User: What shape does this take?
Amino acid sequence: MGFHSNARVAASLVVVSALFLASASAVAALPRKLSQDDLISKLCSKTDYVKLCILSVKKNIKGKHTGVSVLNAEIDAATNSTKEALAKATTLYKSASSKVEKQILGTCQEIYGDAIDAAVDAKAVIKAHDSASLNIYLSALLTDVETCEDTYSDFSRASPLKELDDLIGNLGSNCFKIASQIGLASKSVPEITSTALNQTILHVSAASSSCSNIRKRHRGLGQLQRQALADCNELFDSTVFELVGAVHDLLIVHPEQRYQDLHTLLSGAMTNQYTCLDGFAFNKEKDVIRELFEGSVVNISHHVNNSLAMLRKRPRRPSAKAD
Assistant: This one.
Protein backbone atom coordinates (compact mmCIF):
# COMPACT_ATOMS: atom_id res chain seq x y z
CA MET A 1 0.00 0.00 0.00
CA GLY A 2 2.83 2.37 0.85
CA PHE A 3 4.42 1.87 -2.51
CA HIS A 4 1.19 2.55 -4.40
CA SER A 5 0.44 5.58 -2.20
CA ASN A 6 3.86 7.08 -2.88
CA ALA A 7 3.43 6.37 -6.57
CA ARG A 8 0.11 8.21 -6.61
CA VAL A 9 1.67 11.19 -4.82
CA ALA A 10 4.53 11.26 -7.28
CA ALA A 11 2.13 11.04 -10.20
CA SER A 12 0.08 13.88 -8.75
CA LEU A 13 3.19 16.02 -8.38
CA VAL A 14 4.06 15.36 -12.03
CA VAL A 15 0.56 16.40 -13.13
CA VAL A 16 0.64 19.55 -10.96
CA SER A 17 4.09 20.44 -12.31
CA ALA A 18 2.89 19.92 -15.87
CA LEU A 19 -0.18 22.09 -15.26
CA PHE A 20 1.98 24.81 -13.69
CA LEU A 21 4.36 24.82 -16.65
CA ALA A 22 1.45 24.86 -19.08
CA SER A 23 -0.13 27.78 -17.23
CA ALA A 24 3.16 29.68 -17.19
CA SER A 25 3.53 29.12 -20.95
CA ALA A 26 -0.03 30.31 -21.56
CA VAL A 27 0.56 33.47 -19.55
CA ALA A 28 3.77 34.11 -21.48
CA ALA A 29 1.87 33.66 -24.75
CA LEU A 30 -0.82 36.19 -23.81
CA PRO A 31 -0.51 39.52 -25.68
CA ARG A 32 1.21 42.02 -23.46
CA LYS A 33 0.94 45.78 -23.54
CA LEU A 34 3.57 47.07 -25.93
CA SER A 35 6.18 49.45 -24.61
CA GLN A 36 6.52 52.79 -26.37
CA ASP A 37 9.56 51.68 -28.38
CA ASP A 38 7.88 48.33 -29.15
CA LEU A 39 4.87 50.14 -30.63
CA ILE A 40 7.07 52.25 -32.90
CA SER A 41 9.07 49.19 -33.99
CA LYS A 42 5.89 47.17 -34.62
CA LEU A 43 4.26 49.82 -36.81
CA CYS A 44 7.49 50.69 -38.61
CA SER A 45 8.35 47.03 -39.29
CA LYS A 46 5.56 46.89 -41.88
CA THR A 47 6.72 49.98 -43.78
CA ASP A 48 8.99 49.97 -46.85
CA TYR A 49 11.69 52.03 -45.12
CA VAL A 50 11.91 50.57 -41.62
CA LYS A 51 15.07 52.28 -40.30
CA LEU A 52 13.98 55.65 -41.66
CA CYS A 53 10.58 55.17 -40.03
CA ILE A 54 11.96 54.32 -36.59
CA LEU A 55 14.48 57.18 -36.58
CA SER A 56 12.10 59.83 -37.91
CA VAL A 57 9.21 58.82 -35.64
CA LYS A 58 11.39 58.81 -32.50
CA LYS A 59 12.70 62.25 -33.47
CA ASN A 60 9.27 63.80 -34.04
CA ILE A 61 6.82 61.96 -31.79
CA LYS A 62 5.11 63.95 -29.05
CA GLY A 63 3.13 62.93 -26.00
CA LYS A 64 1.76 59.46 -25.36
CA HIS A 65 2.79 56.87 -27.93
CA THR A 66 -0.24 55.62 -29.87
CA GLY A 67 -0.85 54.57 -33.44
CA VAL A 68 -2.13 58.05 -34.25
CA SER A 69 0.83 59.80 -32.61
CA VAL A 70 3.24 57.59 -34.60
CA LEU A 71 1.44 58.54 -37.83
CA ASN A 72 1.46 62.22 -36.89
CA ALA A 73 5.19 62.01 -36.18
CA GLU A 74 5.91 60.54 -39.62
CA ILE A 75 3.76 63.21 -41.28
CA ASP A 76 5.73 65.83 -39.32
CA ALA A 77 8.97 64.27 -40.59
CA ALA A 78 7.69 64.52 -44.19
CA THR A 79 6.58 68.11 -43.58
CA ASN A 80 9.96 69.12 -42.16
CA SER A 81 11.79 67.56 -45.12
CA THR A 82 9.44 69.36 -47.52
CA LYS A 83 10.16 72.67 -45.78
CA GLU A 84 13.86 71.93 -46.17
CA ALA A 85 13.33 71.25 -49.87
CA LEU A 86 11.37 74.48 -50.24
CA ALA A 87 14.17 76.45 -48.57
CA LYS A 88 16.75 74.86 -50.87
CA ALA A 89 14.63 75.51 -53.98
CA THR A 90 14.23 79.15 -52.91
CA THR A 91 17.98 79.56 -52.48
CA LEU A 92 18.69 77.91 -55.84
CA TYR A 93 16.06 80.09 -57.53
CA LYS A 94 17.76 83.27 -56.32
CA SER A 95 21.14 82.20 -57.71
CA ALA A 96 19.86 80.58 -60.95
CA SER A 97 21.01 82.34 -64.11
CA SER A 98 19.06 80.25 -66.62
CA LYS A 99 15.48 81.18 -67.42
CA VAL A 100 14.57 77.49 -67.71
CA GLU A 101 16.15 76.71 -64.35
CA LYS A 102 14.19 79.54 -62.73
CA GLN A 103 11.01 78.25 -64.31
CA ILE A 104 11.60 74.73 -62.97
CA LEU A 105 12.54 75.94 -59.50
CA GLY A 106 9.55 78.29 -59.43
CA THR A 107 7.31 75.30 -60.17
CA CYS A 108 8.98 73.26 -57.43
CA GLN A 109 8.58 76.08 -54.92
CA GLU A 110 4.86 76.26 -55.61
CA ILE A 111 4.54 72.47 -55.44
CA TYR A 112 6.39 72.25 -52.11
CA GLY A 113 4.03 74.85 -50.70
CA ASP A 114 1.07 72.73 -51.84
CA ALA A 115 2.67 69.61 -50.32
CA ILE A 116 3.11 71.34 -46.95
CA ASP A 117 -0.56 72.41 -47.04
CA ALA A 118 -1.55 68.80 -47.84
CA ALA A 119 0.43 67.53 -44.84
CA VAL A 120 -1.27 70.06 -42.55
CA ASP A 121 -4.67 69.00 -43.92
CA ALA A 122 -3.77 65.32 -43.43
CA LYS A 123 -3.11 65.85 -39.73
CA ALA A 124 -6.35 67.81 -39.36
CA VAL A 125 -8.55 64.94 -40.67
CA ILE A 126 -6.85 62.22 -38.60
CA LYS A 127 -8.71 63.38 -35.47
CA ALA A 128 -12.01 62.88 -37.29
CA HIS A 129 -10.91 59.39 -38.37
CA ASP A 130 -11.66 60.50 -41.95
CA SER A 131 -9.74 57.87 -43.92
CA ALA A 132 -10.96 59.06 -47.32
CA SER A 133 -9.71 62.62 -46.81
CA LEU A 134 -6.49 61.36 -45.23
CA ASN A 135 -5.79 59.29 -48.33
CA ILE A 136 -6.43 62.30 -50.53
CA TYR A 137 -4.03 64.55 -48.65
CA LEU A 138 -1.28 61.93 -48.31
CA SER A 139 -1.57 61.20 -52.04
CA ALA A 140 -1.35 64.92 -52.76
CA LEU A 141 1.80 65.17 -50.65
CA LEU A 142 3.47 62.38 -52.61
CA THR A 143 2.36 63.43 -56.06
CA ASP A 144 3.25 67.09 -55.52
CA VAL A 145 6.86 66.10 -54.82
CA GLU A 146 6.91 63.72 -57.79
CA THR A 147 5.77 66.59 -60.00
CA CYS A 148 8.90 68.57 -59.12
CA GLU A 149 11.10 65.68 -60.28
CA ASP A 150 8.95 65.20 -63.39
CA THR A 151 9.48 68.86 -64.28
CA TYR A 152 13.26 68.37 -64.27
CA SER A 153 12.84 65.22 -66.37
CA ASP A 154 10.68 67.10 -68.88
CA PHE A 155 13.59 69.49 -69.47
CA SER A 156 16.15 66.63 -69.45
CA ARG A 157 17.96 68.13 -66.50
CA ALA A 158 19.44 66.56 -63.38
CA SER A 159 17.52 67.57 -60.28
CA PRO A 160 19.50 69.14 -57.43
CA LEU A 161 16.49 68.36 -55.24
CA LYS A 162 16.31 64.63 -55.97
CA GLU A 163 17.80 63.46 -52.68
CA LEU A 164 15.30 65.46 -50.65
CA ASP A 165 12.43 64.53 -52.97
CA ASP A 166 13.27 60.84 -52.60
CA LEU A 167 13.37 61.24 -48.81
CA ILE A 168 9.97 62.95 -48.77
CA GLY A 169 8.58 60.21 -51.02
CA ASN A 170 9.89 57.50 -48.68
CA LEU A 171 8.43 59.23 -45.63
CA GLY A 172 5.12 59.63 -47.43
CA SER A 173 5.12 55.94 -48.31
CA ASN A 174 5.71 55.13 -44.63
CA CYS A 175 2.74 57.33 -43.70
CA PHE A 176 0.46 55.24 -45.90
CA LYS A 177 1.70 51.97 -44.38
CA ILE A 178 1.29 53.23 -40.81
CA ALA A 179 -2.19 54.59 -41.60
CA SER A 180 -3.27 51.24 -43.04
CA GLN A 181 -2.23 49.45 -39.84
CA ILE A 182 -4.36 51.70 -37.64
CA GLY A 183 -7.41 51.54 -39.90
CA LEU A 184 -7.04 54.86 -41.67
CA ALA A 185 -6.07 53.94 -45.24
CA SER A 186 -8.13 51.17 -46.73
CA LYS A 187 -9.72 52.65 -49.86
CA SER A 188 -8.56 52.12 -53.43
CA VAL A 189 -7.15 54.96 -55.53
CA PRO A 190 -10.33 55.21 -57.69
CA GLU A 191 -12.48 55.42 -54.55
CA ILE A 192 -10.23 58.06 -53.00
CA THR A 193 -10.20 60.10 -56.21
CA SER A 194 -13.98 59.83 -56.52
CA THR A 195 -14.40 61.13 -52.97
CA ALA A 196 -12.10 64.05 -53.76
CA LEU A 197 -14.01 64.86 -56.95
CA ASN A 198 -17.38 64.75 -55.19
CA GLN A 199 -16.06 67.28 -52.68
CA THR A 200 -14.78 69.42 -55.56
CA ILE A 201 -18.20 69.32 -57.24
CA LEU A 202 -19.69 70.85 -54.10
CA HIS A 203 -17.05 73.63 -54.17
CA VAL A 204 -17.76 74.35 -57.85
CA SER A 205 -21.51 74.49 -57.23
CA ALA A 206 -20.92 76.93 -54.37
CA ALA A 207 -18.73 79.11 -56.60
CA SER A 208 -21.42 79.10 -59.28
CA SER A 209 -24.02 80.21 -56.74
CA SER A 210 -21.67 82.94 -55.58
CA CYS A 211 -21.38 84.28 -59.15
CA SER A 212 -25.16 84.31 -59.54
CA ASN A 213 -25.61 86.14 -56.23
CA ILE A 214 -23.02 88.75 -57.18
CA ARG A 215 -24.86 89.47 -60.44
CA LYS A 216 -28.15 89.91 -58.55
CA ARG A 217 -26.87 91.98 -55.64
CA HIS A 218 -24.38 94.30 -57.37
CA ARG A 219 -26.60 96.39 -59.65
CA GLY A 220 -23.84 98.81 -60.52
CA LEU A 221 -21.83 96.24 -62.45
CA GLY A 222 -20.52 97.19 -65.87
CA GLN A 223 -21.45 95.24 -68.97
CA LEU A 224 -18.05 93.57 -69.17
CA GLN A 225 -18.21 92.49 -65.54
CA ARG A 226 -21.69 91.04 -66.02
CA GLN A 227 -20.53 89.17 -69.11
CA ALA A 228 -17.48 87.83 -67.28
CA LEU A 229 -19.67 86.54 -64.44
CA ALA A 230 -22.09 84.96 -66.89
CA ASP A 231 -19.16 83.23 -68.61
CA CYS A 232 -17.94 81.96 -65.23
CA ASN A 233 -21.38 80.52 -64.49
CA GLU A 234 -21.32 78.68 -67.80
CA LEU A 235 -17.79 77.41 -67.17
CA PHE A 236 -18.74 76.23 -63.67
CA ASP A 237 -21.71 74.32 -65.07
CA SER A 238 -19.42 72.73 -67.63
CA THR A 239 -16.96 71.84 -64.86
CA VAL A 240 -19.65 70.12 -62.79
CA PHE A 241 -20.72 68.13 -65.86
CA GLU A 242 -17.11 67.08 -66.51
CA LEU A 243 -16.44 66.12 -62.89
CA VAL A 244 -19.66 64.09 -62.63
CA GLY A 245 -18.56 62.25 -65.77
CA ALA A 246 -15.12 61.64 -64.25
CA VAL A 247 -16.63 60.18 -61.06
CA HIS A 248 -18.84 57.88 -63.13
CA ASP A 249 -15.88 56.67 -65.18
CA LEU A 250 -13.82 56.00 -62.07
CA LEU A 251 -16.48 53.68 -60.69
CA ILE A 252 -17.40 51.65 -63.79
CA VAL A 253 -16.18 48.07 -64.18
CA HIS A 254 -12.96 48.77 -66.09
CA PRO A 255 -12.10 52.46 -65.58
CA GLU A 256 -8.50 51.79 -66.65
CA GLN A 257 -9.73 51.62 -70.25
CA ARG A 258 -10.89 55.23 -69.97
CA TYR A 259 -7.71 56.62 -68.40
CA GLN A 260 -6.96 59.09 -71.20
CA ASP A 261 -10.56 60.30 -71.25
CA LEU A 262 -10.45 60.81 -67.48
CA HIS A 263 -7.24 62.78 -67.79
CA THR A 264 -8.78 64.96 -70.51
CA LEU A 265 -11.94 65.58 -68.46
CA LEU A 266 -9.99 66.68 -65.39
CA SER A 267 -7.58 68.81 -67.40
CA GLY A 268 -10.55 70.55 -69.01
CA ALA A 269 -12.16 71.12 -65.62
CA MET A 270 -9.01 72.76 -64.29
CA THR A 271 -8.61 74.94 -67.41
CA ASN A 272 -12.20 76.18 -67.00
CA GLN A 273 -11.37 77.75 -63.64
CA TYR A 274 -8.53 79.86 -65.00
CA THR A 275 -10.55 80.77 -68.09
CA CYS A 276 -13.13 82.19 -65.70
CA LEU A 277 -10.55 84.43 -64.02
CA ASP A 278 -9.09 85.45 -67.37
CA GLY A 279 -12.48 86.95 -68.20
CA PHE A 280 -11.70 89.80 -65.83
CA ALA A 281 -8.38 90.65 -67.49
CA PHE A 282 -9.99 93.65 -69.22
CA ASN A 283 -9.82 95.58 -65.94
CA LYS A 284 -6.24 96.66 -65.28
CA GLU A 285 -7.17 98.04 -61.88
CA LYS A 286 -7.78 95.88 -58.83
CA ASP A 287 -11.09 94.11 -59.56
CA VAL A 288 -13.18 93.82 -56.38
CA ILE A 289 -15.71 91.52 -58.06
CA ARG A 290 -13.03 89.05 -59.12
CA GLU A 291 -11.57 89.08 -55.61
CA LEU A 292 -14.92 88.00 -54.15
CA PHE A 293 -14.55 84.48 -55.55
CA GLU A 294 -10.97 84.24 -56.84
CA GLY A 295 -9.85 82.26 -53.78
CA SER A 296 -12.60 79.69 -54.37
CA VAL A 297 -11.63 79.27 -58.02
CA VAL A 298 -7.95 78.75 -57.20
CA ASN A 299 -8.95 76.27 -54.48
CA ILE A 300 -11.09 74.31 -56.97
CA SER A 301 -8.19 74.12 -59.43
CA HIS A 302 -5.93 72.89 -56.66
CA HIS A 303 -8.39 70.10 -55.78
CA VAL A 304 -8.73 69.06 -59.42
CA ASN A 305 -4.95 69.12 -59.82
CA ASN A 306 -4.63 66.78 -56.81
CA SER A 307 -7.14 64.42 -58.42
CA LEU A 308 -5.11 64.47 -61.63
CA ALA A 309 -1.99 63.63 -59.65
CA MET A 310 -3.73 60.75 -57.87
CA LEU A 311 -5.06 59.48 -61.19
CA ARG A 312 -1.47 59.02 -62.35
CA LYS A 313 -1.03 56.45 -59.57
CA ARG A 314 -3.83 54.24 -60.86
CA PRO A 315 -2.89 50.88 -62.30
CA ARG A 316 -3.50 51.01 -66.04
CA ARG A 317 -4.14 48.03 -68.22
CA PRO A 318 -2.09 47.73 -71.38
CA SER A 319 -4.20 48.51 -74.42
CA ALA A 320 -5.29 45.47 -76.38
CA LYS A 321 -3.42 44.90 -79.60
CA ALA A 322 -5.38 45.12 -82.80
CA ASP A 323 -6.03 41.83 -84.60
